Amino acid sequence: MEELMISNLYDMSQTIALKVFEGCTYPWEVLPKIGAFILELGESLSQEEYEKVGENVWIAKSAKVAPTAYINGPAIIGKDAEVRHCAFIRGNAIVGEGAVVGNSTELKNVILFNKVQVPHYNYVGDSILGYRAHMGAGSITSNVKSDKTLVEITSNGKRMKTSLKKMGAMLGDNVEVGCNSVLNPGTVIGREANIYPLSMVRGYVEAKSIYKKAGEIVSKN
Question: Does residue 160 surpass a pLDDT of 90?
Protein backbone atom coordinates (compact mmCIF):
# COMPACT_ATOMS: atom_id res chain seq x y z
CA MET A 1 0.00 0.00 0.00
CA GLU A 2 2.28 2.72 -1.29
CA GLU A 3 -0.22 5.49 -0.51
CA LEU A 4 0.29 4.85 3.22
CA MET A 5 4.08 5.06 3.15
CA ILE A 6 6.03 7.75 4.96
CA SER A 7 7.60 8.88 1.67
CA ASN A 8 4.16 9.61 0.19
CA LEU A 9 2.86 11.56 3.18
CA TYR A 10 5.65 13.71 4.58
CA ASP A 11 8.43 16.12 3.65
CA MET A 12 11.07 14.80 6.01
CA SER A 13 13.08 18.00 5.81
CA GLN A 14 10.34 19.65 7.87
CA THR A 15 10.88 17.91 11.20
CA ILE A 16 13.57 17.67 13.84
CA ALA A 17 12.53 14.02 14.24
CA LEU A 18 13.95 12.76 10.95
CA LYS A 19 16.05 10.01 12.53
CA VAL A 20 13.18 8.31 14.34
CA PHE A 21 11.60 7.53 10.95
CA GLU A 22 14.71 5.77 9.67
CA GLY A 23 14.11 2.09 9.05
CA CYS A 24 10.33 2.54 9.07
CA THR A 25 8.05 2.16 6.06
CA TYR A 26 4.75 3.34 7.53
CA PRO A 27 4.37 6.29 9.92
CA TRP A 28 2.54 4.45 12.70
CA GLU A 29 5.64 2.28 13.17
CA VAL A 30 7.24 5.33 14.77
CA LEU A 31 4.65 5.74 17.55
CA PRO A 32 6.21 3.30 20.07
CA LYS A 33 9.62 4.95 19.60
CA ILE A 34 8.76 8.60 20.26
CA GLY A 35 9.45 8.74 24.00
CA ALA A 36 12.89 7.16 23.90
CA PHE A 37 13.82 9.20 20.83
CA ILE A 38 13.00 12.47 22.58
CA LEU A 39 15.27 11.57 25.50
CA GLU A 40 18.13 10.90 23.10
CA LEU A 41 17.53 13.93 20.89
CA GLY A 42 16.95 16.32 23.79
CA GLU A 43 20.37 15.74 25.25
CA SER A 44 21.96 16.61 21.91
CA LEU A 45 20.16 19.93 21.39
CA SER A 46 22.14 23.16 21.40
CA GLN A 47 22.11 24.83 24.81
CA GLU A 48 22.31 28.16 23.01
CA GLU A 49 18.99 27.49 21.29
CA TYR A 50 17.15 25.25 23.77
CA GLU A 51 16.62 25.32 27.50
CA LYS A 52 15.94 22.20 29.55
CA VAL A 53 13.00 22.91 31.83
CA GLY A 54 12.01 20.43 34.53
CA GLU A 55 12.38 16.73 33.82
CA ASN A 56 13.07 15.89 30.17
CA VAL A 57 11.40 18.96 28.68
CA TRP A 58 13.36 20.99 26.15
CA ILE A 59 11.95 24.32 25.00
CA ALA A 60 13.47 26.49 22.29
CA LYS A 61 14.39 29.92 23.62
CA SER A 62 12.52 31.48 20.69
CA ALA A 63 9.30 29.60 21.51
CA LYS A 64 6.38 31.24 23.31
CA VAL A 65 4.83 29.19 26.11
CA ALA A 66 1.92 30.57 28.12
CA PRO A 67 2.42 30.39 31.89
CA THR A 68 -0.86 28.47 32.16
CA ALA A 69 0.27 25.72 29.76
CA TYR A 70 1.29 22.35 31.22
CA ILE A 71 4.12 20.36 29.63
CA ASN A 72 5.02 16.91 30.91
CA GLY A 73 8.15 15.24 29.64
CA PRO A 74 9.58 13.87 27.60
CA ALA A 75 8.82 16.70 25.21
CA ILE A 76 10.52 19.07 22.78
CA ILE A 77 9.04 22.43 21.84
CA GLY A 78 10.68 23.70 18.66
CA LYS A 79 11.94 27.09 17.58
CA ASP A 80 9.33 29.84 17.22
CA ALA A 81 6.57 27.47 18.30
CA GLU A 82 3.65 28.80 20.34
CA VAL A 83 2.00 26.90 23.19
CA ARG A 84 -1.06 28.84 24.27
CA HIS A 85 -3.23 29.23 27.37
CA CYS A 86 -4.16 25.98 29.13
CA ALA A 87 -2.58 23.70 26.55
CA PHE A 88 -1.95 20.24 28.04
CA ILE A 89 1.05 18.31 26.71
CA ARG A 90 0.98 14.93 28.44
CA GLY A 91 4.35 13.67 27.26
CA ASN A 92 6.10 11.96 24.34
CA ALA A 93 5.47 15.03 22.21
CA ILE A 94 7.55 16.84 19.61
CA VAL A 95 6.17 20.24 18.59
CA GLY A 96 7.78 21.43 15.39
CA GLU A 97 9.24 24.79 14.50
CA GLY A 98 6.62 27.49 14.12
CA ALA A 99 3.84 25.14 15.22
CA VAL A 100 0.85 26.30 17.28
CA VAL A 101 -0.65 24.33 20.16
CA GLY A 102 -3.75 26.23 21.13
CA ASN A 103 -5.92 26.89 24.13
CA SER A 104 -7.18 23.73 25.84
CA THR A 105 -5.51 21.51 23.24
CA GLU A 106 -4.17 18.18 24.51
CA LEU A 107 -1.23 16.29 23.00
CA LYS A 108 -0.01 12.79 23.83
CA ASN A 109 2.57 10.66 22.00
CA VAL A 110 2.70 12.80 18.88
CA ILE A 111 5.00 14.35 16.33
CA LEU A 112 3.93 17.68 14.91
CA PHE A 113 5.99 18.66 11.89
CA ASN A 114 6.96 22.31 11.37
CA LYS A 115 4.16 24.87 11.01
CA VAL A 116 1.42 22.48 12.20
CA GLN A 117 -1.57 24.20 13.78
CA VAL A 118 -3.81 22.59 16.41
CA PRO A 119 -5.02 25.91 17.77
CA HIS A 120 -8.43 25.43 19.42
CA TYR A 121 -9.79 22.66 21.66
CA ASN A 122 -8.12 19.77 19.84
CA TYR A 123 -7.16 16.34 21.13
CA VAL A 124 -4.24 14.77 19.27
CA GLY A 125 -3.06 11.41 20.56
CA ASP A 126 -0.82 8.71 19.07
CA SER A 127 -0.70 10.65 15.84
CA ILE A 128 1.70 12.29 13.37
CA LEU A 129 0.78 15.56 11.67
CA GLY A 130 2.71 16.61 8.57
CA TYR A 131 4.10 19.98 7.51
CA ARG A 132 1.50 22.76 7.70
CA ALA A 133 -1.30 20.38 8.62
CA HIS A 134 -4.16 22.21 10.33
CA MET A 135 -6.96 20.93 12.54
CA GLY A 136 -10.00 23.17 12.87
CA ALA A 137 -11.55 24.06 16.21
CA GLY A 138 -12.85 21.09 18.14
CA SER A 139 -11.54 18.45 15.73
CA ILE A 140 -9.93 15.44 17.41
CA THR A 141 -8.11 12.19 16.82
CA SER A 142 -9.77 9.15 18.37
CA ASN A 143 -6.97 6.72 19.19
CA VAL A 144 -8.62 3.62 20.72
CA LYS A 145 -11.34 1.45 19.17
CA SER A 146 -14.48 1.04 21.23
CA ASP A 147 -14.00 -2.74 21.33
CA LYS A 148 -10.33 -2.29 22.32
CA THR A 149 -9.09 -4.52 19.47
CA LEU A 150 -5.93 -3.71 17.52
CA VAL A 151 -6.18 -0.95 14.95
CA GLU A 152 -6.35 -1.83 11.26
CA ILE A 153 -6.23 0.57 8.31
CA THR A 154 -8.55 0.27 5.34
CA SER A 155 -7.38 1.55 1.97
CA ASN A 156 -8.95 0.83 -1.41
CA GLY A 157 -10.83 -2.15 -0.04
CA LYS A 158 -7.75 -3.71 1.58
CA ARG A 159 -6.91 -3.95 5.28
CA MET A 160 -3.52 -3.49 6.89
CA LYS A 161 -2.79 -4.53 10.46
CA THR A 162 -0.82 -2.12 12.66
CA SER A 163 -0.37 -4.33 15.77
CA LEU A 164 -1.23 -1.22 17.81
CA LYS A 165 -4.00 -0.84 20.34
CA LYS A 166 -3.58 2.93 20.26
CA MET A 167 -3.28 4.81 16.99
CA GLY A 168 -4.94 8.06 16.10
CA ALA A 169 -4.41 9.69 12.71
CA MET A 170 -1.58 10.17 10.25
CA LEU A 171 -2.05 13.52 8.48
CA GLY A 172 0.06 14.23 5.41
CA ASP A 173 1.54 17.62 4.58
CA ASN A 174 -0.89 20.53 4.11
CA VAL A 175 -3.96 18.59 5.25
CA GLU A 176 -6.93 20.70 6.37
CA VAL A 177 -9.37 19.18 8.86
CA GLY A 178 -12.68 20.99 9.33
CA CYS A 179 -14.08 22.05 12.70
CA ASN A 180 -15.57 19.44 15.04
CA SER A 181 -14.49 16.48 12.92
CA VAL A 182 -13.55 13.11 14.41
CA LEU A 183 -10.68 11.16 12.91
CA ASN A 184 -11.28 7.55 13.96
CA PRO A 185 -8.49 5.13 14.95
CA GLY A 186 -6.38 4.23 11.94
CA THR A 187 -7.21 7.26 9.81
CA VAL A 188 -4.59 8.23 7.22
CA ILE A 189 -5.12 11.41 5.19
CA GLY A 190 -3.03 12.01 2.09
CA ARG A 191 -1.20 15.23 1.30
CA GLU A 192 -3.25 18.36 0.58
CA ALA A 193 -6.58 16.72 1.31
CA ASN A 194 -9.46 18.67 2.86
CA ILE A 195 -11.94 17.28 5.37
CA TYR A 196 -15.35 18.95 5.63
CA PRO A 197 -16.44 20.21 9.07
CA LEU A 198 -18.44 17.79 11.25
CA SER A 199 -17.02 14.78 9.42
CA MET A 200 -16.47 11.32 10.88
CA VAL A 201 -13.48 9.90 9.02
CA ARG A 202 -12.18 6.35 8.90
CA GLY A 203 -9.47 4.65 6.81
CA TYR A 204 -7.45 6.28 4.03
CA VAL A 205 -8.42 9.55 2.37
CA GLU A 206 -6.71 10.08 -0.96
CA ALA A 207 -4.21 12.90 -1.44
CA LYS A 208 -5.51 16.11 -3.05
CA SER A 209 -9.12 15.17 -2.43
CA ILE A 210 -12.07 16.71 -0.60
CA TYR A 211 -13.83 14.51 1.94
CA LYS A 212 -17.45 15.62 2.13
CA LYS A 213 -18.82 12.54 3.88
CA ALA A 214 -18.38 8.77 3.80
CA GLY A 215 -18.81 7.65 0.19
CA GLU A 216 -18.57 11.19 -1.16
CA ILE A 217 -14.94 12.07 -1.77
CA VAL A 218 -14.00 14.15 -4.79
CA SER A 219 -10.66 15.07 -6.34
CA LYS A 220 -9.52 18.67 -6.24
CA ASN A 221 -9.57 20.45 -9.59
Answer: yes
